[in-house]
Amino acid sequence: MKKILGLDLGSGSIGWAFVHEAETDSEQSRIVKSGVRVIHYGDNVVKKDAKGKISESREPIKDFEKGMGLSMNAGRTKMRGARRNLQRFKLRRQNLIDVLKKNGIITDNALLVEQGSGSTFETLKLRSQSATEPISLNDFARVLLMLNKKRGYKSNRRAQGEEAGTAIDAMGIAKLLYEQNTTPGAYSFDELKKGRKRLPDFYRSDLQNELERIWNFQSKNYPEHLTPENFEKITGATTKATDYIFRNEIGTEQAEIKGDSKAKRLKLYELRKRGLDEKLLLTEVASIMVDINRQIGSSSGYLGEISDRSKKLYFNNQTVGQYLYEQVKMNPHARLKKQVFYRQDYLDEFERVWSVQQKVHPQLTAELKEELRDVIIFYQRRLKSQKHLISECEFEKYHKAIPKPSPLYQEFRILQNLNNIVISTKEKGEFILGDDDRAYLNRWLRHVDGISDAEFLKLLGYEKKDQAKIKFKKIEGNRTFAAITDRCLKVLEYEGYDLSSISNPIERHVEIIKHFDHLGFETEMLRFEIDFSDNDFDKHPTYQFWHMLYSAEDIEKLKARLVEKYRFNDMAASVFAGTTFESTHGSLSAKAIRKILPNMYDGHIYDKACVLAGYNHSSSMTAEEIKNKALKNNLDLLPKNSLRNPIVEKILNQMINQINAILDHPEMGRPDEIRIEMMRELKSSADERKKMTEGIAKATEENEKIRKKLKSDFGMKKVSKNDIIRYKLWEESGHTSIYSGKPIQRADIFSPKYDIDHIIPQAKLFDDSFSNKVLCERSWNEEKSNDTAIEFLERKLSDSEFESFKARVEKHLKSKENNKMSKTKCRKLLMYSKDIPDDFIDRQLRESQYIARKAHGILNEVVRNVTPTIGRITDRLRDDWQIVDVMKELNWEKYDA
Fold this sequence. Notes:
Blueprint: E1 2-9, E2 13-21, E3 30-38, E4 46-48, E5 54-56, H1 60-65, E6 69-71, H2 74-102, H3 122-129, H4 137-149, H5 157-160, H6 163-180, H7 184-193, H8 204-219, H9 228-234, H10 239-250, H11 261-274, H12 282-298, H13 301-316, H14 320-330, H15 343-358, H16 366-377, H17 407-420, E7 422-425, E8 429-432, H18 435-445, E9 450-452, H19 453-459, E10 474-476, H20 479-494, H21 505-518, H22 541-551, H23 555-566, H24 570-577, H25 590-601, H26 606-612, H27 623-628, H28 646-664, E11 673-677, H29 686-713, H30 721-732, E12 754-758, E13 773-777, H31 778-784, H32 789-796, H33 799-814, H34 823-829, H35 842-859, E14 865-869, H36 871-880, H37 886-890, H38 892-896
Parallel strand pairs: 1-11, 11-14
Antiparallel strand pairs: 1-2, 2-3, 4-5, 4-6, 7-8, 9-10, 12-13
């Protein structure tokens, strides 16, 4: 008899049955034991909705099945984080008070709080005064305590990326614009005329000021068109919205500017300069308004606002305290919260206040200043290392996975892709790359982040007549070297060199090295040829240069190191210090890749290269290996937080407990085989795949027609996928909001007034298809939150309005027009949360696959054979055995009620 254990893993329970299966006609199969292990999640589980809001999960199983993000510890972690932040602030405050007492600044009886009527902003007033006039030591202590509370925005270098360099450069440009009373557009035109290739970034406030100056001057010439009301409409509008306002409300199109991209760019900046004091055509005004709003929209919102505040401090010669007090002085109810400044602004304020007070208080020594500033108030420790969270190599035990930006990993990925490519031509049929072609393409791909299939075939000399094809749309290159090359080009542009005419990346790289050498910069780190078979490959100048850029945390120290080691000037050091790389890791270690790489250079595909290196890529085993495999007597529980999903971790640990109990049971023991139910869906048939392909082709053709329509009728230069979806939803709904029944004007299709809403929220159903989307009022979408459409409208609308909504849906359902709403969408519009079928839960399906993969690996440690099965097979067996309605029959009273 063969001993078989069947497992059915679910989010709320684990079903199991231990069976003796007959292997001969004389034997009789029988069920030895069966049962269900219910999974309890406890009371600490929290859920996270689509907006990231954390709340208690009263029904973890249902929330998991609905696809919500669940965590056993997120709620506790959030509260613990808040407690830690508060405790750190209190500790800084206590340390500050102790040091002030020790140095005789305050006494034990010092009053450090606001007291009495009208004292609400007393400390803020003192803070403002302390930057210009002496105050008492006790008041000075109160100011220091206020500085200690909020210390400003400071990001680490990797998260910050180029923002730090942008802010520093922009301040210098802002000062220049202020002194010369000019605008970003006029400045850019003059610089381009001088031959400058790359323009600096500008503050949003400077761009907004330019918009206003041009509008005010041109409105004198076109008072009936450029009205204050229209100015309000375009202020803060997107590029598309600005164009639409000029086209449909002001009644003019943009000017047609001829020439290549460089000529058009120069002409726009010329118009922006002339627009300050010369009458322009109304079409030209439209063009420059659209262009300025494009620049405003492309700036960073959060950091842009912080930078603008810093700029105001600089030009008004104010400290943060003076800036804030000025607001409450004018309006006591002014909101000071969420007015964030850079850490440097607070440091500047500290320096100014200290310098003023030091003149009258000899107790304020240089040593005390250093202790208060660097040790107590503004001290910030380095981020803790997270290396322990990096996964281990699947081939080499105790070796961590390699960072993806590593030159070694980039070389490995290029070769892996090249060796997988199969070229198909009409004459030769299918074949792989030869050694010479592979080496040539590898060298080319080292200098670019990727090439298209058309570029790939062109490099190999194929023409259209050859009808050559490959199955890849894009072949990835060396993203790390491409990022470094991009920085080199940026440096050369600042130095006045233009290499844009060189299309060959290899030839362009030779020119980069030549110009860097001419500028006196080090060039050895730009030799991208690394011999990875050399044990000292990590000593190669290119590898060390990458590692310096990748691992540095302090941007100022990095700049200094770049200047010292590579002889860069300050500008070049700032540019390279802004280089950022992806932060993810591969699945293999550097040790494993170096063993596999020689075989990949020989043209072997990945799995073959692994075998030649002595690794078993697929983790599959031969019959002999299965027979001789050493089995564990018991399974170890998964360590806490070892998986990316705590619910999955809970299920698998419950499965391990169940398996261990069966292994120790005298009637059952170790099974010969475990059969585990995996995903619920069978793969699509050939006919289904064919229908899907035909549907995609039809949709592509329809979208292309709409794209042309938007360009011709709406004047859009660039039409995004989102624009097409918005237009299709608008057409489909009969130019009305299906929720409110109110008409949607053409002018508002692409405006922020309307949102694309998911009928059934993504927190409940991960369905991003067209059949789950409608165009509705933004305010309604925000209010709708995580309700389904009908649940939200039943709550919001009156009885008559709600019946009108259902009538609109029924009308679409019965409509025979071509562009009507699909029946699927109509059903979703009328669907409550409780009616969402299990088949819709795509997230649950993916999690089930994840559970099954992990479970398969765990179970292989105690049995020789683990066989996955499929949910539909179980459903079919349940139907064949006529046990579909067993639960209903057992609980008939509940169903009969």
